[in-house]
Amino acid sequence: MRPNEAKHVQTILASLPSEAVNPCLNIGSSTAHFRTVEQPHVDLLVFRPLRERGVRILNIDMKEEEGVDLVGDVLDLAFQEQLRALHPRLVMCCNLLEHLVDPGAFADACASIVEPEGLLLVTGPYSYPYHLDPIDTLYRPAPDEIRRLFPDFTCLQEAVVSDSTYLDDLLSQYTLPELIRLLTRHVLSFPYLLLADFERFKARYHRYFWLFRPYSSTVVLLRRPAYG
């Protein structure tokens, strides 16, 4: 999740009463280390304010790691029943759809999990480089494409949120000498990775298309109807 995306999600959640988002299922949550250390803005801006409001957050992922409360595959019918039994008022699916072979099936599963009249918050990259986790299908949906995944839901808010560039990220992470060394390594390893590991090659060099243009993310808030 990009920082500006997290800020936008924070603004959306702050506008909703606590009872409308409690409990909250965070599907594809990754680990506590990811949310608090690798991308600290995720916990700081999105989840900490919810906890401070007394919202119960359950982190869900397929890997059994620290910070994952429930381990399972959302496409598994038995696991779906387990999640429905929690009566979630808010289901969050952030930056996950591009890593799925069948985002439509996953969307149907999420739609069936959230309580009637409950909320579904979906985000994903709109303009963003290739990134493996463990795959990237290059699915980069606009808000209307997200809406079409949930045809029975009402769209409450939607946006495409702009963020920094790859150059901004590099300058914030490295000193000038470190940056020169990094770029030198990337230049020297270019032919080797191109021939030896094309997936890693794409994951490393595709981002240079965003050296001067900003990343952006799609954010959509939907409400499930009272029926069905």
Describe the secondary-structure layout.
Blueprint (H helix, E strand, L loop, with lengths): L2 H12 L9 E4 L4 H7 L1 H13 L4 E5 L8 E2 L5 H8 L5 E5 L8 H11 L5 E9 L15 H7 L4 E9 L3 H8 L2 H21 L1 H8 L10 E8 L5
Helix pairs in contact: 1-3, 2-3, 4-5, 8-9
- Total helices: the number is 9
Number of strands: 7
**Mind summarizing the main beta sheet?**
7 strands, mixed
Mean pLDDT: 95
Radius of gyration: 19 Å
Helix-and-strand structural type: alpha/beta
Fraction of residues in H or I helices: 40-55%
Low-confidence stretches: none
Strand content: 15-25%
- Note the overall shape: globular
Helix and strand pattern: HEHHEEHEHEHEHHHE
Termini gap: 31 Å
Strand order, main sheet: write it out. 3-2-1-4-5-7-6
Characteristic key phrases:
9 helices; 18% strand; globular
